[in-house]
Amino acid sequence: MKSSTYYSHGKLLITGEYLVLDGALALALPVISGQSLLVEEGKSEELHWIARHPDETWFEASMSLPALEIKLSSDPEIAASLVKLLSAACTLQPDFLTEIQSLKVTTHLEFRREWGFGSSSTLITNVARWAGVDPYKLLWMVSKGSGYDIACAEAAGPILYRLADQQPVVTPVRFNPSFSDSIYFVYLGRKMDSDAGISAYRQRNKSRQMSLLVEISTITEAVLSARSLEEFTFLIEEHEAILSRLLGVAAIGKTVFNDFPGQAKSLGAWGGDFAMLASNIGKDEVKKLLKKRGLQTFFHFDQLILKHPEDQL
Predict the structure, then answer these.
(1) Which residue in 100, 119, 193, 283 has its CB near the most CB atoms, within 10 A?
(2) 4-172 maps to which CATH number?
(3) For position 205, what pLDDT does the model report?
(4) Residues carrying CATH 3.30.230.10, the chain
(5) What is the rounded average pLDDT of the residues 98-114?
(6) Model pTM?
């Protein structure tokens, strides 16, 4: 058999977190780094799966074909999740894996798995391409997400994303603000469970959530068209205040970054992964203030975000 390679980009959700599940318009940014999946002929009658970080192999497993029974694995819980994903792909495409007796699959993450950039969504998208199935259908068979991360995995640059009648609506946009040198993304050191965050959100007052969809969608559109850092920081502060009241959780700008000279915004599941900072104090000063908080991993906007093709020229 010929080898095949698939590649998907990671993601960051800038606006619309949680409420995107109910139809709010969200601004989502693919990141430059992503995950590849290489499919090759194996050396024994099994599926041998190897998953790599930038620096190491972090998971390995062997399973029978086509039954997908686990023979060996370095982590039984991860192996079970992988079998669930592959089995779901087989349900959507019954011929997937049926005529192959020996496979070696190698995945390679270009970012740290704990960062929350989409180790799962990039894998789901790559497996969907390999199996020839709809990645959104595959996602919703194994996860509770909105699908914005799948849209980012397939996008060539920034997107607006919403669900209409539970179907994804993806609009490519340009988001390369003139003040991008004042936008930073910092890792908070706490990996969050997105599905757990979604479950907690689902338990909140439903009528209150519905009343906020238009408000958040309006902020999303305004963020996309913001012409100054001052306008941008005002909008993300408003967004944080709305989500803080809805979730009953203090905004990160009132806790971790309560004395930061600028505005901070949670990204994705509140309480972990990455936060976005907007400040005009300069990169060196931002780095110094983050170091005082014990936060070592941060990126400038231009280091991290995959821009619209016309902005890459």
Answers:
(1) 119
(2) 3.30.230.10
(3) 53
(4) 4-172
(5) 92
(6) 0.93
